[in-house]
Task: structure prediction
Amino acid sequence: MTQEVKEIFGTGNGTRPGGAPPAPAALAAKVRTLAPSMTRSMQRVAEAVAQDPAGCAALTVTGLAELTGTSEATVVRTARLLGYPGYRDLRLALAGLAAQQQSGRAPALTTDIAVDDPIADVVAKLAYDEQQTLADTAAGLDTVQLGAAVSALASARRADVYGVGASGLVAQDLTQKLLRIGLIAHAHSDPHLAVTNAVQLRGGDVAIAITHSGSTGDVIEPLRVAFEHGATTIAITGRPDGPVSQYADHVLTTSTARESELRPAAMSSRTSQLLVVDCLFIGVAQRTYETAAPALSASYEALAHRHRNGSR
Result:
């Protein structure tokens, strides 16, 4: 049964049967997300189309292969990995992206933060980078997978969420939101406690793993246990090809972080993870509105006296 689920929903790479290829605006985000998992020759093709969509849109498959020093087969494989049925569809997307870029959008800013940058520049660079991270995540988020994850959560008896480090903070954020609309949810950052709780999950329960790298063992292990015990499993990850996806019925892909010396990957990954978490929460609140609205109102009322007294 679990294999059937995998075959139906896939792992967020490429296009599902009957699905539409990514919109032109999503192409650059797709390249940033998937490039780390590509072969070097496929990376050259992906980088070329992202850097010069207009020029590449004018090339045949043979021309792009010659430009990147690869083969026609590599170009076609890259197009398919990016979510397009074939090279013709990728060319159409490149033409659309080139048209958007020529419509007068300002050139991208560099977001590398130097140790001697004025604080005003730091603010501007961080704001731009986080806006780009959110845009990339939104463009690359598979709404079919998101809808399936929302449906599972909305009807769940219980939800367990696994995350460590910065991802653990995101796990806590999701569980407190779900609790406020009346769902039973627990965040686990202790790997031993996570596994012992995962053993108790069954069909009708949901387990969510949050890991940017897709390879965090302390998060993968409880998800595997939950998967094997019949719970519906969800992975929120920046690497949809990572080991965590082996045990995920639904994969929600976040933007690949742009890391620098003064901006660790955990900062960008947290921003994109929080967007996905908010999408999950709003989706569940919509599906369960008749019970969610009164529960949310009750939680506000329970805390109102603390705010009136000036407490935080």
